[in-house]
Amino acid sequence: MKKGINFKSLVPHLLVILGFAILSWGYMSPVFKGKVLIQTDPLQAAASSHEVAEYFKKTGEWSGWTNSTFGGMPTYFIWGRLSKGAVAPIGMFTSQFGQGSYIFFYLLGAYLLLIALECGLWASVLGAVAFAFFSYNIQIIEAGHISKVNALSFAPIMIAGMVWAYRGRSWLGASVFSFGLGLDLWANHAQITFYSGLLMVILGLFELVRAFRKNYIGKFILATVFIAVFGLIIVANNTSTLWTTLEYTKETIRGKSELSPKPGQKSTSDGLDRDYAFNWSYGKLESLTLLIPNFSGGASGGELDEKSEVYKTLGRYNIPPETASQFVRQISTYWGDQTFVGGGIYAGAIICFLFVLGLFIADNRYKYPFAVAFVFFLFISWGKNLAIFNYNRFDYGPVFNKFRAVCMGVSVVQLCVAVIAALGVKSLLANKPNWSELKRPFYISLGLTGGVALLFALIPGLFDFRSENDPRFVENLTQQFGNNRAAANEIYTALLADRSDMLRADAFRSLIFILLGAGLVWAYANQMLKNVTAVAVLLAGLVLIDMWAVDRRYLNNDSFQQKYYSYDDLFQPSPANLQIMQDTDPNYRVIDLTTSPFQDAKPSYFHKSLGGYHGATLRRYREVVDAQMSKNNMAVYNMLNTRYFIVPAQDGQPTVQRNPDALGNAWFVKEVKQVNNADEELKALDAFNPRQTAFVDKRFADQLKTVNPQVDTSATIRLTDYKPNHLTYESDSKVAQVAVFSEIYYL
Predict the structure, then answer these.
(1) Alpha-carbon distances of 250 from 63, 247, 268, 395, rounded to whole Å
(2) Dist CA 25 CA 99 (whole Å)
(3) Backbone angles phi and psi of 192, in degrees to 5
(4) Among candidates 458, 440, 459, which has minimal Cα distance to 448?
(5) Cβ distance 334 to 278 under 8 Å?
(6) Is the separation of the CB atoms in 418 and 137 below 8 Å?
(7) Strands (DSSP E) along 585-631, which ranges?
(8) Separation between Cα atoms, residue 210 and residue 217, nearest integer Å
(9) What is the 8-class DSSP label of residue 260?
(10) What is the DSSP annotation of 146-182?
(11) Which residue has the higher pLDDT, 356 or 244?
(12) Which residues, listed in sequence order, are joined to residue 672 by a DSSP beta bridge?
């Protein structure tokens, strides 16, 4: 007789889930007061998609193209309406819980994985807290990287399914795996999905070796078949999204360039440029932020207050207190290897201690694959700082050159750290080792974590705390102080002292938490604390207190603002925008030079912008931006029908300059010149008259055999009807002519 579900056994898990909900919404409590996070990436996406969203409201038709960003691009990854599979409705359902639920789904996904790994209830809670409250995972919530947040939440579900499948529960495992995969594909963050797949490959290889050694290769193959079949069903169910992604990627900055290789390159780039891809590379030394949050100075935005040396120095120069307070809260205390950061990447001091301890005492089956994955993804996150490894995998490894911001590999690092720490706690609680068995790994773990923290607490001056960006900071400071270099240098010296103090303070802080956590383990091993549940709860509680407090530095109640009910509340047009919007012509382009035009989509909310914000711009357009538009080549701007420039006036406010030479939507040219390749095509734009001449690559010579432009001064061509996805032109000419359209083209 088959046993039914033991609902009583589910009660502890349901209580844990309830506790997770309380933690998540407690951390994000301002949502109960009607407040929200105004997140950068969703705002950029809203601006980019405004044209097609308004078009959809009016017509009920989805446009696969918008002309409001980068002069024109597909909307697949801006405001896509492609099918995202059978699991997508569940993903959409999870998004209905709002911003308060982000941490909840982190917790839930990690908890499911740790339960699959048989860590037990309390060790699983501890590991889930460690993953969910990892400072990087909190920082990306504040930044609004929601697709990344969702992908990281659902990735552990995939891995949990794989673990169950290889533990002999093939049906359950394959089902959970496919469910997690479906959610991860719905999240639409290919880099996190790819990284999660690499982690599963590592885990699968270790399971394969184990199957050979334990002589159950048949069961391993069966489980693998189940996983593969269920996974392929989900992938097939997402074909429209995945196929479109694959097709479009080839035409973007992640695809192959038609230009010749740059000096020093062996071949034309087929993927992102190396420098761009490795722009955010986690530093080797900076990795000590995993143990000491402010090891590298914390956030680029500054974390100083009125007790800082910089504030005191400003006071000596008679800077008003209010101005000085504002200054120290904006100054960059960060001195690590990345361009800028939202804060220290903190894994938790106690978790670091438990991770090292787990490397000694955790079960070998999962300890080793997650340890290998920890090293592998830490190496990936180092990027250009470990060039011998990362440049080779980038140049020759599959898919690697499609992704940037390699520092996000630290989220997988933290998952590995949390898993091994939880496995170690599970072994500790289940096996109850005596002190003589535990003493050696205990002291090694304490020395490698607490000892390092103590070293930097006592001797923080091992570093000079200087950053590559500091010379520019000093130069700007000199100008602010009326070219007083001495004052700027004194303030800079004070900043270096503050960075040292931040390291010392957080080193002491980490040491205290390590000693508290280690003290609990020591008391348990020496049977001073015998209640297993009490030890587990105290450990999990200390981990939560430690990580919660650091996370509040980056995402706290002050991060929330009053709820908005429409994006119109957030995108208020400036007088310059309003002036341009009075133009009733159906189509013209605008570039806003008061901001970084190719890193800001906000102008797209109001205009057909030449700029924008997106990680997958069309490569040919981007190459024109870099080679010509960045040099203010007005011929190119005219060719792209740039009727308006928004520039800063003398008072710093945006003002409008109308360009009388913008060529309109289309025009006839007098001559067509063939060039040999894409290099010559791009170079020809250095000096030309776009009203007179068009350049065409000789690849299209066959299409130009009958082209012989003639002149008809009375000829006209004009745009008569505009829709984002359908432009209607009317032309009138007595002779055959060649028309050039200002539109961006992609097919």
Answers:
(1) 21, 6, 14, 16
(2) 9
(3) -65, -40
(4) 440
(5) no
(6) no
(7) 589-592
(8) 9
(9) P
(10) HHHHHHHHHHHHHHHHHHHHHTT-HHHHHHHHHHHHH
(11) 356
(12) 694
Residue 158's identity, in one-letter code, is M
Q: Are 425 and 340 in contact (CB under 8 A)?
A: no
Number of C-beta neighbours around residue 700 at 10 A: 9
Mean of pLDDT values over 114-133 = 96
Quickly count: other Cβ atoms within 10 Å of residue 130's Cβ: 30
pLDDT digits 0-9 by tens, 135-177: 999 999 998 899 999 999 999 999 999 999 999 999 999 999 9
Residue with token string 């804060």? 343
CA distances from 202 to 157, 369, 617, 650 (A): 16, 6, 33, 59
Contact 574, 647 (CB under 8 A): no
Q: What is the pLDDT at residue 81?
A: 66
**Weakest mean pLDDT among 107-111, 176-180, 261-265:** 261-265
Residue 599 to residues 274, 514, 595, 604, 617, Cα–Cα distance (Å): 19, 42, 8, 12, 11
Please give the average per-residue pLDDT across 471-483, as a whole number. Answer: 84
* Type of residue at 190: A
Within 10 angstroms of residue 289's Cβ, the number of other Cβ atoms is 26
DSSP 535-569: HHHHHHHHHHHHHHHHHTTTSSGGGEEEPPSSGGG
Please choose, from the candidates 50, 27, 47, 29, the residue with its C-alpha nearest in 3D space to the C-alpha of residue 39.
47
Q: Is the Cβ–Cβ distance between 230 and 174 less than 8 Å?
A: yes
CB burial of residue 335 (10 Å; 0-12, 13-18, 19+): buried
- The DSSP string of 320-337 is -HHHHHHHHTTS----SS
Measured CA to CA in angstroms, residue 557 lies from 28, 291, 342, 718 at distances of 8, 25, 16, 54
With contact defined as beta carbons under 8 Å apart, do 509 and 457 qualify? no
Q: Any idea which residue has 């091993």 for tokens?
A: 525
Q: Hey, what are 538's tokens?
A: 């105290």
Task: Write the CB contacts of 142 (distance below 8 Å, at least 6 apart in sequence).
Answer: 37, 39, 342, 554, 555, 559
Nearest-angstrom CA–CA distance, 68 and 609: 5
Six-digit token string for 502? 């931040």
Kindly compute the dihedral angle of the four CA atoms of residues 117, 123, 124, 130, in this order, to the nearest 10 degrees: -120
Q: What is the pTM of this model?
A: 0.91
| Interval 230-258 mean pLDDT | 88
* Confidence bin at 86 (pLDDT 50/70/90): confident
SS (H, E, C) 599-661: HCCHHHHCCCECCCCCCCCEHHHHHHHHHCHHHCCHHHHHHCCEEEEEEECCCCCEEEEECCC
pLDDT tens by residue, 372-395 = 999 999 999 999 999 999 999 998
Residue 727 forms beta bridges with which residues?
A: 722
What's the token pair of residue 619? 């490569």
**Is 660 exposed, middle or buried, given 0-12, 13-18 or 19+ CB atoms closer than 10 A?**
exposed
Q: Is 569 exposed, middle or buried (0-12, 13-18, 19+ CB in 10 A)?
A: exposed
User: Using an 8 Å Cβ cutoff, are 227 and 73 in contact?
Assistant: no
Hey, what are 161's tokens? 């399914």
Please, are residues 474 and 486 in contact by the beta-carbon 8 Å criterion? no
Whole-number percent of the chain with pLDDT over 90 = 59
Least trusted range by pLDDT, from 163-167, 179-183, 324-328, 684-688: 324-328
Which of helix, strand or coil describes residue 529? coil
Is residue 731 classed as helix, strand or coil in its secondary structure? strand
Q: What are phi and psi of 589, to 5 degrees?
A: -120, 155
Using the CB atoms, write b or e for 218-230: b if 16+ within 10 Å.
ebbeebbebbeeb
Q: How confident is the model at residue 647 (pLDDT cuts 50, 70, 90)?
A: very high
Tell me the DSSP string of 649-670: -TTS-EEEEE-TT---SEEEES
What span, in angstroms and rounded, lies between the C-alpha atoms of 49 and 44?
9
At residue 685, what is the residue type?
L
Q: Give the residue among 468, 296, 276 at the shortest CA–CA distance from 384.
A: 276
pLDDT bracket for residue 243 (50, 70, 90): confident
